[in-house]
Write a structure and sequence with these properties.
7-stranded mixed sheet, Rossmann fold, alpha/beta, single chain, Chemotaxis Receptor Methyltransferase Cher, domain 1, globular, 45% helix, 3-stranded antiparallel sheet, binds S-adenosylmethionine
Length: 284
Amino acid sequence: MYSSADDQAFAFLQRFIERESGIVIADNKRYLLEVRLAPLMRSEGLASFRDLVAALQGARGASLRPRIIELMTTHETLWFRDRFPFDFFRDHLLKEHAQSNDGPLTVWSAGCATGQEPYSLSILAEEFAAMHPRSHPDVKKILATDISTAALEVARQGVYDALALRRGMDEVRLRRFFTESAGGWKVRPEIAARITFRPLNLLAGFPHVGKFHVIFCRNVLIYFTGDRKTDTLDRLLQALHPGGHLVLGASETIPEPLMLKHQLARQARGGGIYRKQPAPAGRS
Ligand SMILES: C[S@@+](CC[C@H](N)C(=O)[O-])C[C@H]1O[C@@H](n2cnc3c(N)ncnc32)[C@H](O)[C@@H]1O
């Protein structure tokens, strides 16, 4: 049984995690917090959430804060996840951009976890360029960001074991875009070279990241609610060029006021893909 002091400590941790990361831990997910934070609490000699809250408020707070957020992030991902958004990227976005005079295609994978999403996009750009040697868009830079430094470290290494590769990577692409290395298979330099990995908390604001033609932010905002979710979506949409696409998870939607504010159209098929109205001819 939990005492009311335990309940208050749990509520404190819920508020702290949501304020720092946007991640909402529902009241019925207390076990999740217990399981995820158990190793940290053991190593710090903290017996209860009450002890953890006291430590957070004391001298150890500065070092505990990022470690708690790190443990509460979920890095579930796979190659070419859900397939449709990646087919759409290749068959529509790369193709259309190749026919435009809009400079290099700029892409952002926001909440990239361990790197499968940006590497999948870079592989598609490489395949498209090989198939259309005279008319492929220049995809020089894919920005890939995440709040989790542990996930970003895996992404930067670009080495995946058989278990990770089984989740969406086929044999042909494996042989073409990876080399065997200690601990698994390493992404080839030409695929990695397009990608810049950077830590970024989507709650913290990101005026410095610039503007993009395509933003993938898939299965990240599902952990957010209310104003934090709406504000983050609003800022992501501000970072899109006119005519650009925001690609969310298949079941993720954008509230109507933001649809109107940013003049968005939802792609009929596939779900989760939104296009900002292109600029009138002659303006970009
Ligand atoms: C479930 S993964 C999704 C990975 C990938 N986009 C996909 O769809 O396969 C969610 C990622 O969002 C990141 N994340 C959660 N809150 C975040 C925040 N406030 N800012 C940036 N990234 C965040 C997590 O660290 C995690 O790597």
